[in-house]
UniProtKB/TrEMBL annotation:
<dbReference type="InterPro" id="IPR003651">
    <property type="entry name" value="Endonuclease3_FeS-loop_motif"/>
</dbReference>
<feature type="binding site">
    <location>
        <position position="278"/>
    </location>
    <ligand>
        <name>[4Fe-4S] cluster</name>
    </ligand>
</feature>
<dbReference type="Pfam" id="PF00730">
    <property type="entry name" value="HhH-GPD"/>
</dbReference>
<dbReference type="InterPro" id="IPR023170">
    <property type="entry name" value="HhH_base_excis_C"/>
</dbReference>
<dbReference type="InterPro" id="IPR004035">
    <property type="entry name" value="Endouclease-III_FeS-bd_BS"/>
</dbReference>
<keyword id="KW-0479">Metal-binding</keyword>
<keyword id="KW-0378">Hydrolase</keyword>
<dbReference type="InterPro" id="IPR011257">
    <property type="entry name" value="DNA_glycosylase"/>
</dbReference>
<keyword id="KW-0326">Glycosidase</keyword>
<keyword id="KW-0234">DNA repair</keyword>
<feature type="binding site">
    <location>
        <position position="284"/>
    </location>
    <ligand>
        <name>[4Fe-4S] cluster</name>
    </ligand>
</feature>
<keyword id="KW-0255">Endonuclease</keyword>
<keyword id="KW-0238">DNA-binding</keyword>
<feature type="binding site">
    <location>
        <position position="268"/>
    </location>
    <ligand>
        <name>[4Fe-4S] cluster</name>
    </ligand>
</feature>
<dbReference type="InterPro" id="IPR000445">
    <property type="entry name" value="HhH_motif"/>
</dbReference>
<keyword id="KW-0540">Nuclease</keyword>
<keyword id="KW-0227">DNA damage</keyword>
Amino acid sequence: MQAASAKKAASAKKTASAKKTASAKKTAPAKKAAPAKKAAPVRKAPAAKKVTVAPKKATARLKGAAPARTVVHPPSGESRTALVRRARRINRELAEVYPYAHPELDFANPFQLVVATVLSAQTTDLRVNQTTPALFARYPAPEDLAAANPEEVEEILRPCGFFRAKTKSVIGLSKALVEDFGGEVPGRLEDLVKLPGVGRKTAFVVLGNAFGRPGITVDTHFQRLVRRWQWTGESDPDKIEAAIGALFPKSDWTDLSHHVIWHGRRICHARKPACGACPIAPLCPAYGEGETDPEKAKKLLKYEKGGFPGQRLNPPQAYLDAGGKPAPPLGAG
C-alpha cells in the first residue's frame, strides 16, 4: 500500500512539473527579430572606352597595293612569335605596295652615294638631288673633291642647309678615301664609319645599295614607324637596329629599310598619318592616330614627282590618281 502511494505521488509531481514548464514557455516573451540590413547601393559599371577598329580592307589607292585579307588586332602584350609574324606580314604587304622601292638619292657610283647620303641630313632627298649634279660635274672623283676650295663647295651646297658643316664632311671624307683607301669607297662597315660625317645609318645605305650587303637604315622615318607599329620600344638607333634585325632574316634588311622609309614618307606621316588610306591598317596597333576617313586620308598621300614610286625603274608603270591625272610630287624628305 505504501509503495503504491509513493508511486502516485511521484507521478503527480512529474505532471505538475511538465505543466509548469509548458506554461513558462507560453508566457516567455518572444525574442525581437534582428533589423534587416540595408541593401548596398548598386554601382553602375563605367562606360566601355570606344576603340577605333581598323577596317577589314585597306583603301590605299596606290597601284599594286594589296590590302590585308584579315583584320588582326595586335595585343599590347603579344608573344615574340606573334610579333615576328605580324612584322613580317607588314613587310610583305609593303613590298606589294612599293615593288620598286630604292634609295631616292640619285647616284652613279659608291662615291656619289656616300656624298649624297651625308648631304641628305636635315634636308630632303629632292633638295639633294637638285644640288649634287653641279657638285659631281665639278668634282667627279674623290681626288677632285679632296683638293677643292671649301668656299666654292660651300656655295654649291648652300641650298642643302648646314652647308659649312657638310662641306667640311664631304671634303674630309674625300681626303680619307684618297689617303687611306686609294680613292675607292670601302665595302666594310668598320671602314666606312671611320670616314668624316659617316655613321652607321649612312654606312648601311652605302653597303646595301652600292655593294649589295644587307643592312638596316635607321633614319627618322624608320625609327618613328617601328615604334608606332610596336615592333620595339627602343629609342636609341643602334638598339633599334639590333631589335628589328632580330625580327627578320638578314637577306630582308635592305629592302625592309626601303619599304618602311617609303611608307613613312608617303602615307604614315609623323603629324597626321593617312590611316584611312593605309594598306596595312588592319595590322597597325596605332590605327586611328591619323585621318580614318578614306576620302580625307587620300588627300594626305604624297608621291614622287612624275608618277608612281619607282617609275624611274619601270616607266610603263606610271601611276595616275583616281581622276586620271599624274600623281602629285613627293613633298617630304
